[in-house]
Each structure stands twice: as structure tokens, then as C-alpha cells.
């Protein structure tokens, strides 16, 4: 893949370069608290094209909205290397949660998904639960604590489904 020099500008330039270069020593990308916005996520998703080394991506405490979550979800439909995605403390709503649920239908590589302290309600949590129930038996951690309006019933269902995944061979 060819990259423009614009891809490697800004507060996450070094990480973008390592991801795009498929650096075998760069397996964990911690981009938490860097003020990352949706346009940065687009660059990040482009850098991930063809990456087979990064297994953990932390994007906690940024300014990522449903647009960025959707862009990551599209990228993760193709990427089969990433095992853990942390997006705690962003601005993701039910729309972004639904896009991530859609991604989990085909991506069986992701084992851990952290989405606590966003703006996800029961609607988005139910969509994720449906995916766990019918389409994904590999996700073993799904964190949705401290979201706006997720009920105990839905959270219990998710915990039960994740537990089933953990116990499956």
C-alpha cells in the first residue's frame, strides 16, 4: 500500500508509521489520551491495511464518535490479527456499538472489546448481545460498564453470553 506523507503527521505519527510498516516489534499500540478524533481514526484504519503484527490497540480517552467507530469496524472486518480493542471513554453511541456488533459477526480474532464510559444505551448493548448469542463465540471480554442507560438485565445477558464463550473450547 502507498501512503501519503499526510498520513504520518500529528500526535500519532510514529505509531501510524510502525503500523503501516508492519513492524514485527510493534505489537501493542497505546494511543490513549492523545486527543484522537475521527479523521485520525481514518488514518489509523488506512495504516492497518495489511498489518499482521499489532494485536492490541488502545484508544481510550479520546474524542472518537460513531464515525470513527464505524471506520474501525470496517477495517476490522478485514484485519484478523487484532485481539484486543480498547475504546473506553470516547463518544460512541448505539450507532457505533451497532457497527462494532456487525463487525463481530465476521471477525473471530477479537477476543476483548472495551467500550465502557461511552454513550451506549440498551439499544446498542442489545445489538452486541444479539451478536454474541447468534454470531460470535470467540469474544471473551465485553466491557460496557458506566454507559448511559444500560440496564442490569442487558448487562447480565452479556455477562452470561461472554461466560459461555470463555467456557467453550
From TrEMBL:
Keyword presence, tRNA-binding: no
Sorted alphabetically, the keyword list is: Repeat
Q: Does the keyword Repeat apply?
A: yes
> Matching SMART domains, A to Z?
LRR_RI
- Out of the domains of life, which is the source? Eukaryota
Coiled-coil segments on the chain, per record: none
Sorted alphabetically, which Pfam families does this protein's record hold?
Answer: LRR_6
> Which InterPro entries does the annotation name?
Leu-rich_rpt, LRR-containing_regulator, LRR_dom_sf
Q: What is this protein called?
A: Uncharacterized protein
Supply the source organism for this entry. Pseudictyota dubia
